[in-house]
Design brief:
With 396 residues, the chain is an alpha/beta fold. 51% of the residues lie in helices and 11% in strands. The strands form 2 sheets. Strands 1-4-3-2-5-6 form a 6-stranded mixed β-sheet, with helices on both faces. A two-stranded antiparallel sheet has the order 7-8.
Length: 396
């Protein structure tokens, strides 16, 4: 397919000057994250007002002009599963892409499925069979083959048409505002995840005391600084489970640290004094400076009632052209039940997901109507993949 190629800083600058006047910019990126501290952006595929282009960041250099153009103007930005693209934009210019639409999210709201792969969407909506033979390509290698280039272009060229099909469905279902709300919440979550205390995402920290959390925080920051200096993934420096084990032990004795299973690697043996220093720093903190535990609302387990209501909710979603997994999980429903019944949901906590926005219109109303007997669930066709039917009770 004919396309424009951008390989120099001058070509990139000229291309970006034109981007700000476009009405629609669809994009995809190819990056490698397995061997470096930050993902290495290797290729950017763009369709701007119907014109395909490939940008080679390894040749063009600083991509800030592109991300600045993407964040400016009144154009619509179209992506599929675009968390990586949002993070690249935030990292480069501190702003979101303008008027972002993620077709994976739109597909869930339009009742297709969630999360739907790009190939699934173009097959179902456009009746096109995608070429997926280059999914394991190392995009850092140059030159790119003709087949790699064709694959990269195909990975973005159908995005505008997919979005138009989904836009039509959302208009028919009167869910355009749902998508706008979902995109806002989704991007806000990405921003919060970047700005919040990322060390709290280390798996297994829930049982740690405030002092143990202080040790974990110190070790996490040490690991990040070493990984950035070495330009390698953080877990190659020290695994998460070892961070948690050292935080539990709370010992600054290098000998005691060194006997922890998993720390026998030669490079880690050399780091024992640094690890001991970080642990000691945490142990010396005043109690008030130790991070508090995060309280998690204690909601009851999903009971028979909850299991029944979740099945009913799934059937209701399918009847109304909404992907059930887009709405929420069994845990989300459990939280909503606790919130509605006033049991186990602290007043200071933000209302659960199913009690906010468009989800409250679907799940909250459905739950209220089922609990009040205004709706009933019955078996329709027992041979059907979705045999349950939710219907209004006569006279209600």
């Amino acid at each position: 397919m004919a396309h424009r190629e951008i390989r120099t800083p001058a070509e990139l600058a000229a291309y970006c000057r034109g981007l700000v006047r476009c009405k629609s910019i669809a994009l995809d990126t190819e990056f490698v994250a397995e061997r470096s501290y930050r993902p290495v952006l290797c290729l950017v595929q763009v369709v701007a007002d119907g014109e395909p282009a490939l940008i080679d960041p390894l040749a063009a250099g600083d991509m800030t002009p592109f991300w600045a153009a993407l964040a400016e103007g009144a154009h619509e930005t179209i992506v599929h599963a675009g968390r990586g693209e949002v993070e690249f934009c935030l990292e480069a210019v501190g702003r979101r892409p303008a008027n972002l639409v993620d077709v994976q999210i739109a597909a869930g709201l339009a009742g297709i499925e969630y999360p739907a792969g790009y190939g699934t969407l173009i097959t179902r909506l456009l009746k096109v069979s995608p070429d997926k033979h280059e999914t394991r390509t190392d995009w850092r290698q140059r030159p790119l083959s003709k087949r790699q280039i064709e694959y990269a272009i195909e990975d973005v060229v159908h995005l505008p048409a997919v979005w138009e099909k989904l836009r039509e469905r959302l208009r028919r279902l009167k869910r355009e505002s749902w998508l706008a709300d979902e995109m806002e919440e989704w991007q806000s979550d990405i921003e919060r995840s970047r700005s919040q205390e990322r060390w709290r995402r280390v798996s297994g920290n829930a049982g740690l005391s405030p002092r143990g959390l202080a040790v974990l925080r110190e070790l996490w920051h040490w690991r990040e600084s070493v990984a950035e200096r070495r330009d390698c993934p953080s877990r190659r420096v020290l695994r998460d489970d070892l961070l948690i084990e050292l935080a539990r032990r709370q010992s600054a004795d290098p000998k005691r640290i060194g006997v922890v299973r998993g720390l026998e690697r030669g490079d880690l043996k050399r780091q024992l004094p640094a690890l001991a220093e970080r642990v000691q720093r945490a142990l010396d903190l005043p109690e008030d400076d130790c991070p508090p535990r995060h309280t998690i609302p204690q909601t009851p387990p999903l009971s028979v009632l909850g299991q029944f209501l979740f099945a009913a909710l799934g059937s209701y979603c399918r009847q109304n052209e909404l992907a059930p997994s887009m709405l929420g999980t069994p845990n989300d429903l459990r939280d909503l039940i606790a919130y509605r019944l006033g049991s186990g949901w602290p007043a200071r906590e933000r209302p659960p997901a199913l009690a906010r926005g468009w989800r409250a219109q679907v799940a909250g109303k459905l739950l209220d109507d089922l609990l009040a007997g205004r709706l009933a669930v019955r078996v329709g066709d027992p041979r059907s993949e979705h045999p349950l039917i939710v219907e209004r009770v006569d006279g209600q």
